[in-house]
Amino acid sequence: MAASGRALRLLKAMELLKQKTTFDYGTVLSKVNLESVSNGTFQGWFIVDKSMCNMGGTLHGGYIASVIDVLSFYTQLSNTDGRMSWTTSMNVNYTGVARDGDKINVITKSLISGHSSVVETYFHTEKGKIVAKGTTSFLAAKESNQGFIKELLGFDVYEN
């Protein structure tokens, strides 16, 4: 897996989520295989399973939205100026379907970093067909809250 220094520290911190009962790990990170992480980008994949599907047997939009929210948070945190931030808005465009057993590639990319950041997330099939695209906006928490992620995961947002 290719990764920058900050991204490697973030991946190590994310490993600590396995020891905690969290939505981030239990719902998303336990199923998405990260292949490449660098400042401002994540690339990975997952295999659609029944727990991710709606009653029609296709990948549920709510699962897609969860992956977007979780991965985009860690993507913006991987930027050299990334901070503990809150999602302020998320827009998802669903453009295709994926079924149980399909491999879905996920790519995130920071468009804007800093106090107000924006991340795009793309989902596509192995054949390159776009399934969904999400755009997430974040607002950095107050300076007094920036230590939270260090307390929780041992990741210092001020260290690059």
From TrEMBL:
It holds the Pfam family 4HBT. SUPFAM superfamilies: Thioesterase/thiol ester dehydrase-isomerase. GO terms for molecular function: fatty acyl-CoA hydrolase activity. Residues 56-122 form the Thioesterase domain. Keywords: Hydrolase. InterPro entries: ACOT13, HotDog_dom_sf, PAAI_dom, Thioestr_dom. The keyword Hydrolase applies. Belongs to the thioesterase PaaI family. This is Thioesterase domain-containing protein. It comes from Mythimna separata (Oriental armyworm).
